[in-house]
Amino acid sequence: MGYFKLKKVQDLVWEIEGSTNSEKQTPKYLLNSQIDKEKELDMVLGRIDFSHHKNFIVFGMKNIKLLSEIYKRKTIVSTMVIIEICKETEENLFVECDEKDLAFLFDRKRVNLTIGSQDELVAQLSIVLGDMLKLYNLRNTEIISMPYMKSMYPNEMQGLTKIIFERLHTFVSSYGNSVEDILLGMDNYLDNWRHIFRSIDYIHFKDMYKDKPAIIVGAGPSLDKNIQQLKRAKGKALILCVDAALNSLLNVGIVPDLVASIERLELTSKFYNREDIPDEIVFVGPNVVKDFTLNKFERIIFTGRAGDALIRDFGSYIGFNNLDIGGNVSNVLIAFTEHLGCNPITFIGLDLAYTGGRTHTAGVSEALGKENMIGYKDKENIVYVKGQNGEMLETLEFFMYAKNWIEMNMVRNSQNLFINATEGGAMIEGALNQKLAEVIEKYCLEDLTPFSDLYDKIKEDIAIDKLGTTQKALDYIKEVDKYLRRISKKAFQYLNKIRTHKGVGLVNLMEKQRGEMQAALDKNSAGRFILQSIIISYNRDIHSFPMYLSKEDEKKMLGKSIDFYDTIKKVCDRVSEDFKAYKLILDRYLEICQKEEETI
Question: Of 417, 439, 459, which marks where a domain is finished?
């Protein structure tokens, strides 16, 4: 029995240091259970079903022996997230245990140790919850609480449990794009090919507005309260708006510096369906929006999309960079203002919830038409979030995901001041609530260089090799197409093997094939991303089966595996047909670029 020191590593994540504390006196901050450890061990272990692959979320780490036993008994692909609420994380922390019981804490792939105040734990959990193994085990996530945690921190545990499940579902949604959605983005990218050569990569704007104020304008119903006040900030703060808020601003004479879109769908083009969009507005966003939208702007900044592996890797291959822009248009603007170096960053109209029964400012329904409005209460996926006054508000899942992304992003960029001047809607944890008038009075004091002027100056020094870029794009499309054909062939082989298998060993064969297919899929991240929703769904199904299968379970697993390989083959073959069209588009552009070079 000895004392072992804990240390912080990797941006807030904790681990055991590995050497015993040689001091004979008891350390000042010792995490050690004061109740009968053996009794606690029997009481907790007796309630746990270890026959399934699970995510074990364990509140409390004062009984290391208990944690060690959970680790020993869990399946090999089950994970553990250990949470200890502690207000004194700046001091040396120790645990008391036998050295042999510490081995599990060095399994960093499957065990995460988080320690701190509630706010610190939220930050740590945002880091450790997003790996693929936890997504596969999501259906069997189990909360385990040591008795002392229940009695000492009931409110904190309740809040953290809610955040854990919100974060897990947010990560699932970020991987859940359908094949159709992914290919629609790629369709638009190639339809927009000519716009690449007149755009600027976002990377060129790094810290161009260092420590200058920015105001991000959402299209929530509370925008109506602040829209007149916003006029005072024009020219003294960078004003960036989401596509749905553009008409509301222009209708009252406010010309934003930038506007963003993120959606691939035709519907969002309706926000730009007016003839008087001022020339000085700069478009910013990923190159997956409709061509109609980009045609409305003289100045374009492409952000790429770090979370979409196909767009990300394709862009990287042809020489463009990728920004982590989340999944919501407001997320795009937040990420870009951070890249610009803006500080503080203020939100208005970012309700992200039903405020007075509405999700958007009046201008949105005027632009889209009521029949196209998203967010009415008769839609599915209603969830509840805390409002700014502590009340619980109805919202939609995708608004909750946007809120979660903003909160996780603020943790990663804690050096910035984020101000929520929305005056309604969801509480954004980590942002300072302040009225827009106060923000303008305090921070919007100096005239700023117009963003369009800065854009034009940067554009003068940028030249894109049209022929070389197009050839690289064609090479990349051919490479991904080869990968898809290889995966299709392998899926067909595996499908035949399990269909024709006789005798014992079927489960072992399916697990062997699953591992081999995973290795083959991982050889091309963009190709794998196209198939991501199918892969995650299959692995979550397989991880839902118990460790020891009945004959009925084995039959069900066979059915899941047959469906998986059959679907993978069909999708790969269909996507290859789409890639033929991509190659034709790029071949045509190659001819155009070659003719242009010949005339120079």
Answer: 459
Considering the domain architecture, whether residues 61 and 157 belong to the same structural domain is answered as yes
Mean pLDDT of 511-526: 95
Handedness of CA 344, 405, 527, 302 (dihedral sign): negative
Domain identity same for 146 and 86: yes
Distance from C-alpha of 357 to C-alpha of 365, rounded to nearest angstrom = 14
Instruction: Write down which residue in 420, 443, 459 finishes a domain.
Output: 459
Q: Which two tokens stand for residue 201?
A: 């990569």
How many helices (H) and strands (E) in the chain?
Answer: 22, 19
Task: List strands edge to edge, sheet with 432-433.
Answer: 200-201, 300-302, 282-285, 258-260, 238-242, 214-217, 345-348, 418-420, 432-433
pLDDT at residue 261, as a whole number: 94
Check residue 363 and give its pLDDT. 59
Instruction: For 55-109, write each residue's pLDDT tens digit.
Output: 999 998 888 888 999 999 999 999 999 998 887 655 567 777 777 888 787 788 8
Among residues 362, 312, 305, the alpha carbon closest in space to that of 328 is found at 305
Range from 156-170, 235-249, 507-521, 584-598 carrying the lowest mean pLDDT:
156-170
Nearest-angstrom CA–CA distance, 464 and 95? 58
Report the pLDDT averaged over residues 430-459.
96
DSSP for residue 255: -
For residues 477 and 593, state if they share a domain.
yes
- Could you tell me if 163 and 195 lie in one domain? no
Domain holding 149, by residue range, is 2-174
According to DSSP, residue 52 is labeled B
Structure tokens at 302: 């492409």
Q: Where are the alpha helices (DSSP H) in 129-197?
A: 132-136, 147-152, 154-174, 179-191, 193-196
Are both 394 and 298 inside the same structural domain?
A: yes
Q: Are residues 534 and 512 in the same domain?
A: yes
pTM reported for the whole predicted model: 0.82
Is residue 263 domain-shared with residue 405, that is, in the same domain? Answer: yes
Query: At 2, which amino acid appears?
Result: G
In the DSSP assignment, the letter for residue 27 is P
Q: Are residues 371 and 454 in the same domain?
A: yes
- Structural domain count of the chain: 3
Write out the DSSP string of 359-421.
SS-HHHHHHH-GGG-S--TTSS-EEEEEBTTS-EEEEEHHHHHHHHHHHHHHHHTTTS-EEE-
